[in-house]
Amino acid sequence: MQRKALLASLMFTQAAVMAQNCPAPGAPVSYPLTRTVDQQDDYHGTVIADPYRWLEDANSAETKDWVEAQNKLTQNYLSQIPSREAIKTRLTKLWNFERFSVPFKEGGRYFYSRNDGLQNQSVLYTMKTLAEVPRLLLDPNTLAADGTVALAGLAVSPNGKYLAYSTAASGSDWNEIKVRDIDTGKDVDDHIKWVKFSQTAWLHDASGFFYSRYDEPKEATKLADVNYFQKLYFHKLGTPQSADVLVYERPDHKDWGFSAEVTEDGHFLVIHASQGTENKNRVFYKDLSKKDSKVIGLLEDFDAAYDFIGNDGPVFLFRTERNAPRGRIVSIDTRKPGVLSWHQIVPESSNTLVSASLVNNQLLVDYLSDAHSLVKVYDLKGKPLHDIELPGLGTAGGFSGKRSDSETFYSYTSFTTPSTIYRYDLKANKSSVYRQPKVDFDPAAFETRQEFYTSRDGTKVPMFIVSKKGLKLDGRNPTYLYGYGGFNISLTPTFSVANLAWLEMGGVYVMANLRGGGEYGESWHAAGTKLQKQNVFDDFIGAAEWLIAHKVTSPAKLSIGGGSNGGLLVGATMTQRPDLFAAAIPQVGVLDMLRFHKFTIGWAWTSDYGSSDNADEFKALVKYSPLHNLKKGVCYPATMITTADHDDRVVPAHSFKFAATAQADQAPNGAPILIRIDSKAGHGAGKPTNKQIEEVADRWGFLTRALHMPGGDPATATAAHSAATTTATVAQ
Q: From which residue to which does the signal peptide run (predicted)?
């Protein structure tokens, strides 16, 4: 095809990706016919064909027929995998455990969510003391019979009288805000629509709240239309949305987004202005004690990240990366805000400062040390007081509260530790278990180790390897390598029922901390963006090569997975080095790097990716764009692409076009290229438990066949997991 010829000079041409005939692990797959169109686009003098452009219209009858045919093929294939039902049964049993969120206190009440095990959505509870029986406040499972309406956010008024809560339907990013009277448990009449990427911030007197929204979209195209011109509004309780007051907008900057918070003393509104997903922001504020006060710019240079922590009257505390890529804490007096007047409270260290909170008139500072949590306590002058002792190599989160509180709550989790909730007494510097889930497995049967490997350019990159104890290094272990590598997002040790089932099956789980993430601060993030994005893929490939060289696994037993930006990671890596992997699972991935910015919020990702509208960035993008680097006749790994019909973050067209192209290009007798398209689901947030179980069962079932795992029955593995070998479930 012309597309292939035009891109030939831009693609990797190593022998590993040359046309070949590869034996499939089963009978050849007969794919639905997908028509092509003569669509061509000129990018700075380079003409690119887009033969499946018509699949971008998710509402057309032809696209819906294509989706139905692809789903039928995929489900027929998966239904023939003997282990799939056993995996689903074991997942259901594992998932059925009581779990809790971190409690928080507001207006003299505690609030937390709980899931009894298999509820599709967690339920919100409240209580006035820790000793009393909690009262159910909001059950999202009653909002939709199939559990597809999720609680997307909540904010309690400072007097503890009202709960403003936002809901998302079918996984969409579009939210609606309603208000519930906490005493009666009944909703009042207030109803806010067309909210997306917003916080809710109450006035101190609970008369109303601030929120961000977009203009009402066209109903038919609301899941695909680009989102620009977000505005910040104030809603007064008891009034219609049409009466809401516009607080701040920037019609001169369509790509600015706004989030707001009210200071604990109720004196100021603090507005954060972001520009896409750039790890920088501007800060404005408004004096709420003065009627009709103006919004004032405080930090307008857009030169770094600034996270508001708290205030002493007009003196604001921020976590910032200005002149400190790994973060520091400074105070800024709004009366003399010049940078020369800033006061440094906590200096930058060798660890990455993730967040900080102001509780008990102390700073609780959450760090990352080689991608796992380290929490320190400082006084307000920055003097180190002590560390909060954590159980091990894991991830801690929470630590919220008021300046006058002497207690806070946090969660701790690791790959083999379900999220346990702790109450921390700041006066005694003592943690105690508040809620500890009980899961049907033996954590002592598994082990986690951290390795550092060398990437292509010599950079040391960490990864976690989780397996049963006594892993035999013979290159025959089925392995799932997971990564993300983007948007300053850090991957840290976290418990997952899905991954536990994989481990019980005898699989090895590996998580690589790639550049582009935030594990080592802004420099680490920047090293995996725009013209340096290839570093991320090199890091992932380096992890695979290390695992193979050290006989943890082999190409015939190695699979890769990742979602969203991680889906891009998988797509780029499988097209660059298909020889390294037996299977690939790109989930809700950004796969068309030339057109991602033309849908919903995709334009915001140009801070990490660049844009095809820029000639130099186009040259970088087209070299790794998964859709544009598929080649006819290459033996690609067995691939299951996943997406959803309501994904308005990464629109399903990415996955549709990639699947159609990969199916057409796969080598004769090659492994299957399937696409799984979920219904009434979105990018992932708020997905009901039953849908999560179905998806994971399909993923692991697919891999049992692709990685030649006879049996692959996690129930059998559970019965044998006390043995010192993995041969109970995987034929070696």
A: 1-19
With residue 384 as reference, give the H or E element that holds it: strand 384-388
- For the question of whether the overall pTM of this predicted structure is more than 0.90, the answer is yes
What gap in Å lies between CA 178 and CA 192, rounded to an integer? 7
Contacts of 531 (CB under 8 A, 6+ apart): 610, 616, 617, 620
Beta strands 558-563; 479-482: pairing state = parallel
| pLDDT of 17 higher than 80 | no
Task: Average the pLDDT over each of 88-97, 457-466, 678-687, 710-719 and give the range with the smallest value.
Answer: 710-719
Assigned CATH for 40-92+441-717: 3.40.50.1820
Catalytic residue set: 564, 683
The answer to whether the CB of 691 falls within 8 A of the CB of 676 is: no
Return d(Cα 260, Cα 254) in angstroms, integer: 18
Asked if residues 141 and 115 have their Cβ atoms less than 8 Å apart, the reply is no
CA 610 to chain centre: 20
Could you give the maximum distance between any two Cα atoms of the chain, in Å? Answer: 75
* pLDDT tens for each residue of 59-97: 999 999 999 999 999 999 999 999 999 999 999 999 999
Q: What is the mean pLDDT of residues 9-18?
A: 34
- Between the alpha carbon of residue 361 and those of residues 333, 357, 379, 382, 404, the distances in Å are 18, 10, 7, 12, 7
Compute the distance between CA of residue 633 and CA of residue 662 in angstroms, rounded to an integer. 10
679 pLDDT exceeds 90?
A: no
Distances (CA, A) of 26 to 56, 302, 560, 669, 706: 32, 55, 20, 9, 9
Please tell me the distance from the alpha carbon of residue 45 to that of residue 42, in angstroms, as a whole number.
Answer: 6
Q: Phi, psi at residue 194, to the nearest 5°?
A: 60, 40
Residue given tokens 């206190």 in the structure block:
105
Q: What mean pLDDT comes out for the span 319-333?
A: 97
Q: Is-contact 648 169, C-beta < 8 A?
A: no
| H, E, C per residue of 253-275 | CCCEEEEEEECCCCCEEEEEEEE
Helices (H), 1-113: 2-7, 61-79, 84-95
The token pair that represents 465 in the structure block: 């390897």
N residues, the chain: 732
